[in-house]
Specification:
Shape: globular
Helix content: 40-55%
Low-confidence stretches: 1-21
Mean pLDDT: 89
Number of strands: 14
Strand content: 5-15%
Number of helices: 17
Distance between the termini: 52 Å
Largest sheet: 6 strands, parallel
């Protein structure tokens, strides 16, 4: 495979460090540039078609899929990459032709956008990459470094919106107003003379819309699966046949459980699907036995040791091509190499595999974990914290965001806890050490659920209070979007943990520091000095 790009962060940079691919290769960047060229030009014609009332965003699913393909280039074979780029280019040519034909028939003036890159059926992936390299060089000669970095940030925000729109589609919902702004954002990439002010305005507007999508997702989760409650989740296994569902798609997990109630195997969750156990409606399924593994050291190890089939429900699973064939399943449109593709909503194949699997022979006892929260209890605790902040009993409230496990970050936060002034308090969604000045809320990385809790906090302690300090411990597109929103709302102290270059390159970090006043973590001692304004 030409590309091997790890989009997951954490785990001490996980597989990318051990295999030496923590930076985005020039080939990947060039291929992505070709995709961006075609997507931005397709966005131009999508907007033009809407402008003349020709159609109403008939390409929206295709464009969202194209943006998501930018994120997950590591999971595709070379043939699949060629297929993706060819489909985008064909769709661009068709949209362009249809727009001009419509304008000719209706006697409307049409606008022309010259295609900057053309493909032929004979072109190989290597030739496409070389074309992308030339396009990148040409672009960088026409724009300033600040423009380049702002465009990169804009693309990250567009990716975050695409991810959340895809998640919203799991609940048969969509937001056309958000999609239109995505098109406008992509369209900005068509013009090298766009001012930095205009690019930043687009970034800020799209980041605000991302909050709207997160709110819609939280409402959708609650409508579909009930409220989140405090619950104990078993980490143990029991003897018998088993099926593992990994990823973040709650709807697929619910369908699996609903359709397998009468079958003789147990279902275990994995990774971000741990949160399912906290929703009321998932607790009706007796064969949902618990959460398997931890994904805290290496998710591949969890997969390799599970004695049954595994259903993958999200895009980012690096290096799964090293696992046993015939064990991994997915219902995604394009599946990774070595993964068995399921037809949408048809799980009979994986059910048969579970019934024929080895299963757990003895089972294993492991301590359970607590997830979710009691709403009344949480509101009461936040209210008491607010009173203590007002009285001066608490001078600094530190909020630590969600994260994949990293021993480096764990060491950082252990030291941070140890050196915090006495009048400090911590609300954490990830790293925690059971101290008296800590409130740990385990929501298994579910951003909509975390957002709901943060709203309760901000109702009592304003975002722009100089008593609030935010730590972002996960490097991903959603984090960048949330950092920008917090900065624009007036948050005084925002810290982002160290990111690998293949996620967020150092130039982007520098721009975020300059424009949005964020900090990157250094040492606990220095960071505490910074937010305490001491010398």
């Amino acid at each position: 495979m030409l590309f091997n790009r790890n989009k997951e962060e954490g785990n001490d940079y996980n597989e990318c460090v051990s295999r030496g691919n923590c930076s985005t290769s020039p080939e990947v960047r060039a291929f992505q540039e070709v995709m961006i060229i075609f997507l931005r030009q397709l966005a131009y014609y999508e907007l033009k078609q809407e402008e003349v009332n020709m159609s109403y965003f008939e390409n929206k699913e295709f464009i969202i899929d194209g943006i998501l393909s930018l994120i997950a280039t590591n999971k595709y074979t070379n043939d699949q990459l060629l297929e993706i780029i060819s489909r985008i280019y064909s769709k661009l040519l068709y949209a362009r032709k249809e727009y001009h034909n419509f304008c000719d028939k209706t006697k409307l003036k049409s606008d022309e956008f010259k295609l900057t890159l053309k493909l032929t059926p004979q072109m190989t992936l290597s030739e496409i990459i070389r074309a992308g390299e030339k396009a990148l060089l040409a672009k960088y000669k026409k724009i300033s470094l600040q423009q380049k970095n702002l465009y990169e940030i804009l693309l990250l925000i567009i990716e975050s919106l695409a991810i959340n729109l895809e998640k919203l589609s799991e609940y048969d919902k969509f937001d056309d107003s958000v999609y239109k702004e995505i098109l406008k954002g992509l369209n900005l990439f068509n013009y090298t003379k766009t001012s930095t002010v205009k690019i930043k305005d687009s970034i800020d507007k799209l980041a605000r819309m991302d909050l709207t999508l997160i709110d819609l997702l939280e409402n959708s989760q609650r409508e579909k699966f009930g409220n989140i409650i405090n619950t104990e989740v078993s980490k143990s296994t029991i003897p018998g046949k088993a099926l593992l569902v990994s990823g973040a798609n709650l709807q697929i997990l619910y369908d699996i459980l609903k359709k397998s109630e009468e079958l003789d195997f147990s279902v275990y969750t994995h990774a971000d699907l741990l949160i399912a156990h906290a929703f009321e409606k998932f607790q009706q399924f007796k064969h949902l036995k618990g959460n398997y593994g931890s994904c805290s050291g290496n998710c591949v190890l969890d997969f390799a040791t599970f004695p049954g089939p595994i259903l993958l429900t999200k895009s980012d699973y690096p290096n799964i091509d090293y696992l046993y064939r015939g064990k991994l399943f997915s219902s995604e449109k394009m599946t990774p190499q070595g993964v068995i593709k399921l037809n949408k909503n048809d799980y009979n194949t994986i059910f048969e595999s579970a019934l024929n699997s080895k299963g757990f022979s003895k089972g294993r006892e492991i301590d359970s974990i607590e997830i979710g929260y009691n709403k009344d209890d949480l509101i009461n605790k936040i209210s008491k914290l607010s009173q203590k902040i007002k009285s001066g009993e608490i001078e600094k409230l530190i909020i630590i965001g969600t994260s994949e496990y990293s021993s480096c970050q764990e060491d950082y936060f252990q030291k941070l806890y140890r050196h915090l002034p006495e009048k400090s308090y911590i609300i954490t969604f990830s790293y925690h050490f059971n101290t008296k000045n800590e409130l740990f809320i385990n929501l298994a990385g579910n951003l909509p659920a975390i957002y709901k809790v943060l709203i309760e906090i901000f109702n009592t302690v304003p975002v722009d209070s100089n008593k609030l300090i935010f730590f972002f411990t996960k490097c991903d597109t959603n984090s960048i979007s949330n950092i920008i929103n917090l900065s624009n709302l007036g948050a005084k102290y925002i810290y982002l943990s160290e990111c690998t270059p293949n996620i967020i390159n150092p130039n982007i970090i520098s721009t975020l520091k300059k424009i949005y006043q964020i900090n990157t973590t250094s040492t606990p001692h220095e960071d505490i000095k910074n937010f305490l304004n001491t010398k």
